[in-house]
Design brief:
145 residues; alpha+beta; Jelly Rolls
């Protein structure tokens, strides 16, 4: 997959960012091909990489048996790369061949710390992803009832 500003702007995590902000993000994003059965992350491991789905179907599962699938372009796996304590809260495995964008945790954090406005925007978007995922897995949050 060829990466350019237009491709990146289509991903929900990066929508609304300025071309200058996208120019800062582009160098740390790496496209990868993923094969059916490949384990992307393991619950409890130290966060190394964040994955943004381009194509394919991925099972997210927890040690307690809960599981769900992700398959939409822009879905994020490994959001804990930017959330303390920087360990994966779930495991993920590819159910089909696919493609994803990877962002190494160290580069992601350096970028966000070096540009507080950009870091704030990304953190806000990731927080919404986390909130949606928690509601999906555990049900409505108390303030939503």
């Amino acid at each position: 997959m060829h990466l350019d500003l237009q491709n990146i702007q289509e991903i929900s995590l990066f929508k609304g960012l300025s071309p200058g902000e996208l120019d800062k993000i582009l160098p740390i994003i790496h496209p990868v091909k993923i094969h059916e059965g490949e384990r992307l992350i393991r619950e409890g491991d130290t966060s190394q990489m964040c994955y943004i789905i381009i194509s394919g179907t991925y099972m997210i599962h927890y040690k307690d048996g809960r599981a769900f699938t992700l398959n939409k372009k822009g879905d994020m796996i490994g959001w804990s790369t930017i959330a303390s304590p920087f360990t994966y809260h779930e495991s993920a495995v590819a159910l089909t061949d696919g493609e994803a964008l990877t962002i190494p945790v160290e580069e992601f954090l350096e970028l966000m710390q070096g540009d507080s406005d950009l870091g704030s925007k990304i953190t806000k978007k990731v927080t919404e992803i986390i909130r949606q995922r928690i509601v999906f897995i555990k049900g409505p949050l108390e303030d939503e009832e």
